[in-house]
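Notes from the 1:1 (GR / supervisor)

We went over the backlog. Supervisor wanted to see one worked example end to end before approving the batch request, so GR pasted a single chain during the call. The sequence is below; no edits were made to it. Supervisor asked that the structure be written out right there so they could see what the output format looks like.
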Amino acid sequence: MAKLFLILGTFALGLLLVPAWADDHHGGSLEAKQHGYEHGYRDGFEFGLEAKEHGRTLNVRDDINTDRGYHDSFGSKDSYRQGYREGYRSGAEDAYQGSRTRLEQLFRFQDPNFNPDRPGQDTTVWIYRDRNWEVQDVASDVGYRDGINAAMRDFREGKRYKPEDHDAYKDADHGFDSKYGSKDAYRQAYRAAFEQGYRAGFGAPGRG
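Structure output shown during the call:
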């Protein structure tokens, strides 16, 4: 009986340690505030990197556009705005301080064996199609996450900074569905997000 309680206690502790955003799909959170947080974090992280690389003082303004990326299908706009504002500040501070813990918690694949260069038929992204999310958001969410994970793998394996070498970047169709319309528009948004995610995941060109 004591052994059973120990097992159950360990399992419960494991559940508590899993981040609230640990969805099993390869894109953004389905909850409005968390989705806003992720969008804000991405933009803030980019802002923080730019400030650090150019030797500027980090000055996160209060009048940032917290509607950026919002769509009615996400749910509450106020919740999205709140999440975006919090995420932007967190992302900017993390990038400026060189902290990567939260970045990886937010965007690292939960399945370590998933390879965006060989995604196969990834049915986990169909949930966005079913919720009528816009093509720009799906492409940018999936592309950013793919870019981060590709970069982390490249850096870990001692490879050069080359986002364009990845099949995921070349194909740029992970998560695409004909319901979204133009595949060219999807690819354009995906590649831009992949590059942004790769930059965040690798650190910066020339790092290491």
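Supervisor's comment: Residues 110-203 form one domain.
Batch request approved.
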